[in-house]
TrEMBL record:
<protein>
    <recommendedName>
        <fullName>Aspartate 1-decarboxylase</fullName>
        <ecNumber>4.1.1.11</ecNumber>
    </recommendedName>
</protein>
<feature type="binding site">
    <location>
        <begin position="73"/>
        <end position="75"/>
    </location>
    <ligand>
        <name>substrate</name>
    </ligand>
</feature>
<feature type="modified residue" description="Pyruvic acid (Ser)">
    <location>
        <position position="25"/>
    </location>
</feature>
<feature type="active site" description="Schiff-base intermediate with substrate; via pyruvic acid">
    <location>
        <position position="25"/>
    </location>
</feature>
<keyword id="KW-0566">Pantothenate biosynthesis</keyword>
<dbReference type="GO" id="GO:0006523">
    <property type="term" value="P:alanine biosynthetic process"/>
</dbReference>
<dbReference type="GO" id="GO:0005829">
    <property type="term" value="C:cytosol"/>
</dbReference>
<dbReference type="InterPro" id="IPR009010">
    <property type="entry name" value="Asp_de-COase-like_dom_sf"/>
</dbReference>
<comment type="function">
    <text>Catalyzes the pyruvoyl-dependent decarboxylation of aspartate to produce beta-alanine.</text>
</comment>
<keyword id="KW-0068">Autocatalytic cleavage</keyword>
<comment type="similarity">
    <text>Belongs to the PanD family.</text>
</comment>
<dbReference type="InterPro" id="IPR003190">
    <property type="entry name" value="Asp_decarbox"/>
</dbReference>
<keyword id="KW-0704">Schiff base</keyword>
<feature type="binding site">
    <location>
        <position position="57"/>
    </location>
    <ligand>
        <name>substrate</name>
    </ligand>
</feature>
<keyword id="KW-0670">Pyruvate</keyword>
<dbReference type="GO" id="GO:0004068">
    <property type="term" value="F:aspartate 1-decarboxylase activity"/>
</dbReference>
<keyword id="KW-0865">Zymogen</keyword>
Length: 127
């Protein structure tokens, strides 16, 4: 059996641009793609922390070190510059591989620089 598993995540990235007139997709700084093993043209899910919008699109690499997170085309309707987003990718894996897989997760700072890498998600309980 194959399962769809959380593969990668860019957590709390700041949207730098929203370009309604572009053909489509999301442009992401190549440095962030390398850190999370997300490829050009890979399908990603984007969740807007500010307004709850969720969408799926594909990735276009942006200039390395630029910090760019640009929603293009129709996706631009779901966010505006300054919004915080979570960008996730998933992969189909056989059960054996999935059980031991550790997602590549990075947490961003306010300038879209990596604040934490190899972050391990733990359950959170509100007190």
């Amino acid at each position: 059996m194959f399962r769809e598993i959380h593969k990668s995540k860019i957590h709390r990235a700041v949207v730098t641009e929203a370009n309604l007139n572009y053909v489509g997709s999301v442009t992401i700084d190549q440095e962030l793609l390398d850190a999370t093993d997300i490829w050009e043209n890979e399908k990603v899910q984007i969740v807007n922390i500010n307004n709850g919008a969720r969408l799926e699109t594909y990735v276009i690499p942006g200039p390395r070190g630029s910090g760019v997170i640009c929603l293009n085309g129709a996706a631009a309707r779901h966010a505006q510059p300054g919004d915080l987003v979570i960008i996730m990718s998933y992969a189909m894996m056989a059960e054996e591989e999935a059980r031991g897989y550790v997602p590549k997760v990075i947490v961003m700072d306010a300038d879209n620089r990596i604040a934490a890498a190899s972050y391990r998600e733990l359950h959170s309980t509100m007190i």
